[in-house]
């Protein structure tokens, strides 16, 4: 199948440039899938995907996992339609599975400030899982200021807004097969605007 892989995209009036290619992403996820399969051999882990952003990452990750496993989802919202976090976590959908005595792997698209992950780890921790691990495709380590546990990271990225591969900007851009980063406007462009 030929995927749509432009070098630049314009979403909601902002210009983005490719940062991680489809191939780089797939290669890394394959390694993560192998690592998880090794670490959770005979534990039948349950992946808990954080909607909406993590759905594509989780779908690809699970197909590189070679051991028995299950999946469920919850839904959080912290960005609204903006490019900076609202600083509040809202839960829009509950986990349906019973996680007591299960080996749980939380799956996120990106850990930015760490607020959402902190909320999730505390919440799932209260459900008495046998173990709780965290995997994120992207980590903005410079921006993370909440004390969070992260066991597996796909890529460390700079503190800039990204989209594609499940991640949105005001709900658009999730369909892109690659990860794109916001092109910073030159000072001259910013000034001439107003
Ligand atoms: P945190 O709670 O760690 O600050 O942010 C977590 C959530 O904010 C992520 O799961 C993701 O949905 C959203 N987010 C953080 N940084 C970015 C980004 O650069 N691009 C997009 N599209 N979403 C982001
Ligand atoms: Mg997310
Ligand atoms: Mg979002």
| Number of beta-strand segments | 10
Contiguous runs where pLDDT drops below 50 for at least 5 residues: none
Distance between the termini: 45 Å
Domains (count): 1
Physical arrangement of strands within the biggest beta sheet = 5-4-3-6-7-8
* Content of β-strand: 25-35%
Overall pLDDT score: 92
The CATH level-2 architecture is identified as: 3-Layer(aba) Sandwich
Radius of gyration, whole Å = 17 Å
Shape: globular
Q: In the CATH hierarchy, what is the class?
A: Alpha Beta
CATH topology: Rossmann fold
Helix-and-strand structural type: alpha/beta
Bound molecules: guanosine-5'-monophosphate, magnesium ion
Q: How do the helices and strands follow one another from N- to C-terminus? A: EEHEHEEEHEEEEH
Helix tally equals 4
State the helicity in percent bands: 10-25%
| Biggest sheet overview | 6 strands, mixed
Structure keywords:
binds guanosine-5'-monophosphate, magnesium, glycosyltransferase activity, 194 residues, Hypoxanthine phosphoribosyltransferase, alpha/beta, single chain, 6-stranded mixed β-sheet, transferase
Architecture overview:
The protein is of the alpha/beta class and 194 residues long. It has a single domain, classed as Rossmann fold (3-Layer(aba) Sandwich), CATH 3.40.50.2020. The protein has 4 helices and 10 strands; from the N terminus they run E-E-H-E-H-E-E-E-H-E-E-E-E-H. The strands form 2 sheets. It has a 6-stranded mixed sheet, sandwiched between helices. A 4-stranded antiparallel sheet has the order 1-2-10-9. Strand 6, helix 3 and strand 7 form a beta-alpha-beta unit. Helix 1 packs across helix 2. The N and C termini lie far apart (45 Å). Guanosine-5'-monophosphate binds next to strand 6, helix 3 and strand 9.
């Amino acid at each position: 199948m030929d995927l749509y892989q432009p070098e630049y995209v314009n979403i909601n009036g902002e210009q983005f440039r490719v940062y991680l290619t489809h191939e780089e992403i797939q290669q890394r996820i394959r390694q993560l899938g192998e690592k998880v399969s090794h670490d959770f051999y005979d534990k039948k882990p349950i992946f808990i995907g954080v909607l909406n952003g993590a759905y594509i990452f989780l779908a690809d990750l699970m197909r590189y996992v070679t051991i028995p496993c299950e999946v469920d989802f919850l839904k959080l919202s912290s960005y609204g339609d903006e490019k900076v976090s609202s600083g509040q976590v809202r839960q829009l959908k509950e986990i349906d599975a019973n996680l007591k005595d299960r080996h749980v792997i939380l799956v996120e698209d990106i850990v930015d400030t760490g607020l959402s992950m902190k909320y999730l780890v505390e919440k799932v921790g209260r459900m008495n899982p046998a173990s709780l691990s965290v995997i994120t495709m992207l980590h903005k380590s410079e921006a993370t200021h909440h004390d969070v546990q992260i066991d597996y990271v796909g890529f460390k990225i700079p503190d800039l807004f990204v989209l594609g591969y499940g991640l949105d900007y005001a709900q658009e851009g999730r369909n892109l097969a690659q990860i794109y980063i916001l092109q910073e406007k030159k000072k001259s462009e910013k000034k001439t605007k107003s």
